[in-house]
Hints:
Order of helices and strands: EHHEHHEHHEHE
Distance between the termini: 21 Å
Strand content: 5-15%
Mean pLDDT: 96
Low-confidence stretches: none
CATH topology: Rossmann fold
Strand order of the largest sheet: 3-2-1-4-5
Amino acid sequence: MYLFDTDVLSQIVKPCPLPGVIARLAATPPEQQFTSAITVGEMVYGAYRSRRQEHYLRQLQERVWPNVRVLPFNHAAGEIYGRLRAQLEQAGTPLAEPDLRIAAIALTHDLTVVTGNVRHFARVPGLRWENWLSP
């Protein structure tokens, strides 16, 4: 089961999405597709920063949100987040706040993060990840 990061889900609304990503999304059963409330926030933020706000907000409503389940940052994820943040800071390898929250949600639900941002997520102990953006 998969937790999609922003860079992967945003392929759905791009004018020229990567065909491999679209094919993998289509081949993944809907009940195995998740994202986080953090990714929702990042994608909505990106839509509002676009010159075509209404277009991208509509694309999100019609093409993205109906096809993926959104997981919250809840108490269990907060517990994991706090532990991870302390571990990574003590090791001298802190992680950006949004990525650390996404990782905590994935660990809470035993999901594999699908991202092109491997450099960051690879630092999280015990986190499974896959890069669907590389050829």
